[in-house]
Amino acid sequence: MRGDGLAGGEGGADRLGELIPAALRGMAAGIAERGGPVPAGGPAAVAAALVAERGELVSEKQGSNPVSHSRPAAAAGNGSLPRRGIGAEAALEELSRLLAAGSADPADPACAAHLHCPPLAVAVAADVVASALNPSMDSWDQAPVASELEREFTAGIARLCYPAAETPDAVVTTGGTESNLLGLLLARERDPGVRPVCGANAHHSVARAAWLLGLPAPVVVPCEGDRLLPDALAEVVTPRSVVVATAGTTNTGALDPLPEIAAVCRRAGARLHVDAAYGGMALCSDALKAKLAGLALADSVALDLHKFGWQPVAAGLFAAREAADLGALTVRAEYLNAGDDTEAGLPDLLGRSIRTSRRPDAFRMAVTVHALGTDGLGALVERCCATAAEVATLVENHPGLRLWGAPELSTVVLRPVVADETGDDELVARVRRALLEAGTAVIGRATLPTGPGGTDQLWLKLTLLHPHTTGDDYGPLLDRIAATAGAELVAGRESPVAS
Amino acid sequence: MRGDGLAGGEGGADRLGELIPAALRGMAAGIAERGGPVPAGGPAAVAAALVAERGELVSEKQGSNPVSHSRPAAAAGNGSLPRRGIGAEAALEELSRLLAAGSADPADPACAAHLHCPPLAVAVAADVVASALNPSMDSWDQAPVASELEREFTAGIARLCYPAAETPDAVVTTGGTESNLLGLLLARERDPGVRPVCGANAHHSVARAAWLLGLPAPVVVPCEGDRLLPDALAEVVTPRSVVVATAGTTNTGALDPLPEIAAVCRRAGARLHVDAAYGGMALCSDALKAKLAGLALADSVALDLHKFGWQPVAAGLFAAREAADLGALTVRAEYLNAGDDTEAGLPDLLGRSIRTSRRPDAFRMAVTVHALGTDGLGALVERCCATAAEVATLVENHPGLRLWGAPELSTVVLRPVVADETGDDELVARVRRALLEAGTAVIGRATLPTGPGGTDQLWLKLTLLHPHTTGDDYGPLLDRIAATAGAELVAGRESPVAS
Question: What ipTM describes this predicted complex?
Answer without folding.
Answer: 0.95
